[in-house]
Amino acid sequence: MPAKKETKSFEKSLERLEKIVEEMEQGNLPLDDMIARFEEGQGLLKECRKKLNEVQKKVEVLVKKDGGVETEDFDEGEEEEGSLF
Amino acid sequence: MSDTQRKVLSVSAVTRRIKALLEGEIGSVWIEGEVSNLRRPSSGHCYFTLKDASSQISAVLFRGSQKPGQVIKDGDMVRVYGRATVYERGGNYQILVRTVEEVGKGDLQKKFEELKEKLRKEGLFEASAKKQLPLLPRHVGVVTSRTGAAIRDILNVIDRRFPNIHVTIAPVRVQGDGAADEIAEGIDLLNARGGLDVMIVGRGGGSIEDLWAFNEEAVARAIWRSRVPVISAVGHEIDFTISDFVADLRAPTPSAAAELVVGRKEEFLGALNERSVSMVRILREAITLYEGRFNTMAGSYVFREPQNLVRQYRERLKSLSVTLRHELVSSTREITQVLDEASQRLTAGAQLRCERAAAVLGRAESALRAMNPKGVLKRGYSLTQGANGKCLTSVEGLAKGQRITTVLADGEVRSTVDDVSTT
Known about the structure:
The structure holds 2 protein chains of 2 kinds. Chain A is of the alpha+beta class. Chain A is 56% helix and 16% strand. Chain A has a two-stranded antiparallel ribbon. In chain A, a hairpin with a 2-residue loop joins strand 1 and strand 2 (68-73). A 5-stranded mixed beta barrel of chain B has the order 1-2-3-5-4. A 5-stranded parallel β-sheet of chain B has the order 7-6-8-9-10. In chain B, helix 3 (149-161) packs parallel to helix 7 (254-301) and helix 8 (306-330) packs antiparallel against helix 9. Chain B is rod-shaped, with a radius of gyration of 45 Å. Chain B starts with 10 loop residues before the first helix and ends in a 7-residue tail after the last strand. Chains A and B meet through helix 1, helix 2 and strand 1 of A and helix 3, strand 7, helix 4, helix 7 and helix 8 of B.
């Protein structure tokens, strides 16, 4: 399942981020290394945020049409009765 | 037909005829059924519905007919003896109950226990068979009524906590005849659609009859064969449904199910934001430290490789402030208000410091440019070094015959002192 792999890499990224913050926190890094860590961290953050948000909000509803099943946007305010069947 | 030809009866007259017919034809009978929808108003009379799998009938047990100590309640299986009659005012028929005999637990309860036991033996409730919920759910299916409270509650929670999720609803009836089959088919359809990470199957609270579809075997089997992990979220008035036992996870309400779905994602986002804020803070502190060092070093360092050094650090700080600004911009709406503000404050602080550091360096650089001896030499001044290579700033100590070197913009002149005089 691809989602699982992504989750794994996501967790790895998060782990790496933690390590980076830890190293930066120790305060004995030269500025060059500090900046390098920061940049790596920014990259990881961006990647992880992207993964978290790569899906835009979308609410759809299944409808039966011409013997098949299709989807249409769900209007959250709707009071329309009905089910698939 | 004209009015004179029609035989027009009053409502009361028809009702009386129906009543006579019903009472004459049915009379007093024994009826077995399950008590539901029991109401006991202050009058002390008992109103309830007797039902079986396909029909129901209203019944009333007047206070005077009640046996002391006998308490009937919803779900009880009873045998009543009573007279069929018509309640003229309401135009409905009912049984006036004179005697109530309990016949053990209600039929529904019995069916529930039997199915539960059967499915348990088959292993449908095994913990080892439960599927893991995804950590990063992106596409969530919901099998419930299109218009019920459940879907509104679920969407509210998602909107409030983590809106960036794709939701697909399989609209089904969640109570009444055929509801169980619709729910089961909804689960199957969402599976067939593919791409879902998790699904919520449920409805808001209700009576045991309202929730009954979720105790049906068809629903249990559909949940069992679902490849997509299922969270069962059925009402809150009774403890458990069969669906709850078969599902990979049970939530007490549809809202709680939605929280389970988005909770982990929110947790991750929180962890990310925390790291982000830490990194910006640490870097800001480091820059403050370096800024201080620059200020104290400015005087001594610059005499060696001043321009390069200054330029180099200025470049670095510039790119750093770009990175920080970028960090500010990429903080989109997924960050909670508080974190957003904190991060902005920190980033703005860091940026301000970078700019300040750059300004300090800029001033140092122009001061250096002004101090650069080569610039001065170009304007016609020269620099004289003694035999030991040191710059001469006074004639003191110079004598005839000593070697000196004069540095001009484009070269050096070596000469011997002829005469020394003070001005």
